[in-house]
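> call design_seq(struct)
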């Protein structure tokens, strides 16, 4: 379990200012009251400092994975949920707490390091810097250069998170999770998936039929047979404020999906969402799309905001996604 006494501030990251454009400055404060969150088994991760105090997992022995389980598992049946985090990765306390919330609702949660140690950094910003109310022209120029450099670094990072890199890694983790948590997979009649930001894109891809050359990173075995397709690898998906989602990502979908979206989100433009929704309707793919106005990208990840409307939207998005997963 993530230590919610040290997980403070930040929607979607542990820095004072998110590295993702469109996010607001993070707020100070304790994220969760221990009295309001049910107890879970201590979450397992191969990256924790003190592994001697927790039971080792076959999955964490091989992969960098954060695992959170219901407190009564395996004595009570659970379902397996693949948790695909935002760019700040599974080191982020906020992402760990978000995974723990699903565990408290009866899911065995497996959150892989889908970035292979290359999570998005917030180090390009000064967490102690306070923006001036009326910056000078020179300061405006400086801020412009900083924004340009930050945008460039984001673009470079996103370019490194290619399907060819991420999907084979996810495939291996899924196969390992099927083995270790076979009871949870059987109880849910498959694997469920939830994704935030860039993780949302991969929920859509895992819910699609893809060539093995992409999904598993395999070479073509038989030239005459050609490329073999497989999938989908999940039973149902839920996603929030997706990043880099294309209409093709949505048009390949084969499983039920719910989306919690941000209005006027430059990372998941309204026109792409609208075109994708039309395709889902025309092709009778079960879906649900809720658009939240006046909230920042990243609002659905555990975190504190001064604006109560954003906090209400955060709660509503979780309830939307949880309800969808439980009903499918």
């Amino acid at each position: 379990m993530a230590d919610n006494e040290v997980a403070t501030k930040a929607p979607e990251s542990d820095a004072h200012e998110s590295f993702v454009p469109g996010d607001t400055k993070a707020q100070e404060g304790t994220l969760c009251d221990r009295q309001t969150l049910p107890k879970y088994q201590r979450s397992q991760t191969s990256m924790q400092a003190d592994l001697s105090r927790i039971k080792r997992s076959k999955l964490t022995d091989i992969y960098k994975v954060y695992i959170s389980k219901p407190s009564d598992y395996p004595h009570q049946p659970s379902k397996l949920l693949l948790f695909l985090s935002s760019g700040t990765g599974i080191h982020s306390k906020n992402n760990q707490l978000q995974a723990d919330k699903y565990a408290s609702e009866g899911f065995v949660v497996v959150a892989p390091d889908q970035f292979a140690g290359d999570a998005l950094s917030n180090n390009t910003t000064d967490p102690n810097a306070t923006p001036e109310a009326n910056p000078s022209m020179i300061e405006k120029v400086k801020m412009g250069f900083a924004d340009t450099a930050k945008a460039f670094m984001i673009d470079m990072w996103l370019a490194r998170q290619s399907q060819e890199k991420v999907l084979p890694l996810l495939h291996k983790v899924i196969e390992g999770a099927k083995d270790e948590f076979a009871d949870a997979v059987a109880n849910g009649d498959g694997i469920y998936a939830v994704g935030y930001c860039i993780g949302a894109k991969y929920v859509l891809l895992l819910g699609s039929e893809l060539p093995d050359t992409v999904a598993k990173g395999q070479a073509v075995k038989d030239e005459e047979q050609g490329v073999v397709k497989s999938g989908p690898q999940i039973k149902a998906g839920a996603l929030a404020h997706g990043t880099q989602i294309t209409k093709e990502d949505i048009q390949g979908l084969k499983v039920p999906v719910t989306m919690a979206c941000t209005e006027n989100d430059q990372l998941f433009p309204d026109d792409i969402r609208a075109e994708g929704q039309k395709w889902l309707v025309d092709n009778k793919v079960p879906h649900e799309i809720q658009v939240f106005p006046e909230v920042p990208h990243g609002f659905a990840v555990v975190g504190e905001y001064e604006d109560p409307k954003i906090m209400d939207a955060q709660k509503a998005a979780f309830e939307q996604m949880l309800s969808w997963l439980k009903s499918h």
